[in-house]
Amino acid sequence: MFLTPRLVILLPTVLFLLGADAKIPRVAHPGSKQAKYLASKRPTTTAAQVSGSFTGTGWSASAPEVSAPYANIWQELTNDEAADVIAFLHNQTNLNLTAAADAGSWDNSVMRVEIVTPNKTDVLPFVDNSQRKPERWARAAIWVGATTEPYVIEYQIGPLPISSDSTLTSLDWLTTKGTTYQRNYDADEDLTSEFMYNVSASVQDIVTDLLNGTASGSDDDDLDIWGIDPLWHPTPDTTVQWVTYWRIPSSIFDGETLMPQGLYFEVNTTGRDPLGWSVIGWLYRDVYYNSTESFRAAWEAGELEKSALNLEGPWIGTDYRGPTTSVGANSTMWGSEKAPPVMVPPSGEDGIRYKVDVENKYVEWMDFSFYIAFRRDSGMRLFDIRYRGERIVYELGLDEALAHYAGNDPVQSGTAYLDTYYGFGPYAFELLAGYDCPTYSTFLNSTFHAEEVSTTHPNSICLFENDQGYLIQRHSDDAYVASTKNIAFTVRSASTVGNYDYNFDYTFYLDGTIEIVVRASGYIQSAHYYGNDDYGYHIHSGLSGSMHDHVLTFKADIDILGTSNSFANHTVAPVTTTYPWSHGMERSTMKLFRSYIDNEDNSKLLWPENAHSMFMIVNKDAPNEFGEPRGYRIMPSKGGGMHATIQNSSNLINSMNFATHALYVTKQKDTEPRASNANNDYDPANPVVDFAAFFDGESLDQEDLVVWFNLGMHHVPHTGDLPNTVFTTAQGSMQILPHNYLLHDPSRDSLQTVRIDYNDSGVQAVHTFGASFSTGLVNLTSTVPEFWDYRGDIDVRKFPYDPQHPYNDTESIV
Ligand SMILES: [Cu+2]
What is the model's pLDDT at position 814? Predict the structure, then answer.
């Protein structure tokens, strides 16, 4: 029996092709300037373009069905659950909620609702011992604007389904701060934008002269104004922000972050009354002016030399550029007009070698099984990853993504994005079959609920097997050659968070290895080139590549034969020693030194120089028959592990303690499910979750352990980052691999091995072990993706609940 994972939904479609600005509106209430601006950039497909789309019989593979052993208890809220929770919230009169669609910055409104990830200590008795199923609870983030000191706060609501027993209670137990209350110093972003435009208007003659453009908030603008993130508080009661001018592309290409203009101003936006706001100073060509008057006086005196402007041109476009480019008179790659090799499944649907329970997002491939969940903050994550029937990873997923910039100008210096604030879920748009994933992939949808709208990203998670392009095993001698194909299974999603595109892979291998890969593409955020050679390369006429660190923090809750585990460090080190056979002579050699990291006091770790240490989660109580503890090793792969260069960040203060080291080990606690919180960014000096608080001296000896590791890169963009950063080099990965876990390499249990015996007379025997080989004909035309089926998102307004009128509206994203 087969089923089709693609939903059959016929909709008027907005084609969402491009990411938003680097500075995504914090709350893009429909109708806000930002929302209008973003919407204006999104082309709408015509009826002809979408006709006949989504019959459910497109290129997507219909995977064989399997029934999950138990329901996916981590799965996101259903649309109906979200609607019920939002209606319940509106019935709580003390919350004084306004429907999100009508809410302004002085109202209280629902920012997002989501599942409370059930506690591990509640889940394991249910999963392993058939005890009571964990209750399902929701969490809600509420925007409290009806006060002079606006804030955001989270509650939990449950149990679900909503009944007379359901309550609204505190979610403070999920914080290190003791409260989910988080002061919001940027509640009036629409007004601050207006204020910036007015400031700019007051020097329009100078802006015209220096930048040849206008920023007024109108649709006709050719300049945009935005700046630091998060905002600064030089004193606890003061809010200031530096902003700069960016040129708005007139073409479809989203290259605004490649066109900084080099003029900056600083404003004091303390409090909620714009009458109390003021300009603090201006910066141009590294000269600071402490008032608008002094800046104007310098301009009028002719003291301002004009900088090179970053203007739009083909250089920001990602299309094929034609035969004439800056790098050669005829630079078209020879042969590139021909169709490239394609991947095809060998036997159509019958050949699919994995099984899917679509409703429960449960997957089985070879010796692995796992559940998929999806979160607004962090996107896709996996639960209960089992290998040969044993759980090896309870939870695996992204927790936070930092992009910390530096520069001699205040905007680059003041930029340190915490991307779960914007969320990976809202931007995990539909994957493009045949490009993001093979056309034969199985695609799954994902859903999140923000601003009282449920948004479904169709086909935003893909599952596929493919040949890695190199063997997993080979050997040959003068009598035989033996080879095993390296076929792996990948779960993939991609999120366009502002200017950047992140691709996330979880890949499973025949030897029991799991690999976590993150890759970055999209537009860099660049700096205007002036006096910043210490902060990046000069990559275009007026452009600096603006160096920055990407640090993506992952949680890997590894369980080896139960939850009583230890963290082993096996180090190879040089020694000089004598042996009974060395005739008293010292030999210079090396040894293996075994130790344990047995306390959280010592568990903030760096990857050792020369990779001379192996870190493993092992179970001391479960040695193999040779006495070695069975375990799984964690090991950097492509690009390796890393941590942030900047320590004690002036921007993030207490909100980047997950980025100080390459990896960490803590004792699992239900109260510490995530290294960060999406609301930290509102007030980074006082984070809701401070990762440093997880380290309180607890034992790591035969306890339930969690590893937190960082992937990313020190990104100093060079000319090859124009127009977009490329995945080939902008990637990092981690492998979780069996280490003395089994007694031999398990890939020997794959039938996809061949041995050819030969001698001087030629091939004597071919051993194929009963494996099937591809048969039949391939219709290569069928591998071409259905481009016109691409849809964008599907949104359903939840309050008032109107499921019969889904509409596409990707702008309303918190
Ligand atoms: Cu980068």
Answer: 24
